[in-house]
Amino acid sequence: MKKKLIIIALFVFGFVLIISLFSIDLVKDTTQLKPSYELPQSVKSQIKSEVMGLDEIHILNYGVRLTASLLDFSEINDIKNGKANCVGYAILCKSICDYAYRLNGYNIKVNHVRGYVSLMGINLCKIAQSISPKKYKSFVKDHDFIELSLGGSYYYIDPSLYDLMGTDCMTIITDRRF
Description:
Layout: H1 2-21, E1 24-31, H2 41-51, H3 56-70, E2 72-73, E3 83-84, H4 86-103, E4 110-119, E5 122-123, H5 124-131, E6 143-150, E7 153-157, H6 159-165, E8 173-177
Parallel strand pairs: 2-3
Antiparallel strand pairs: 1-4, 4-5, 4-6, 6-7, 7-8
Helix pairs in contact: 2-4, 3-4, 3-6
């Protein structure tokens, strides 16, 4: 267990260092069709009391922050008990944002997407997979995050990296205009 935590800590530290030195990008491969998470009534009440009147981008940022406050990073996804990896973070954040958009009357849906993290065109997930011990290779082969289409732009944001980095400046938003 100690060895596993050290490997994860080194990976996260290296990732933080790379992010702070270079511009990274989130690259979408596919949209995930996983079911939304049913938010508990207490979370719905909290969202309702905090998001009324917010614009689309502020709701997205709110969803990321609330997701980070409700979850701790883990290898397993157990959202009800506050544990998740990138998949669970994306599922919860999508559910929070979708609910907040509905409350404010926006006809906007957030997508849960799968892809990879890129540094200057290099797929960091492939690099992580090549250097990871065999039992973690499938864990780092790709990465889940969320997508918001708004005004002709696609915004990719990563609530799990936001939580791991612990700061707004590390929230990754990629604006793709089509």
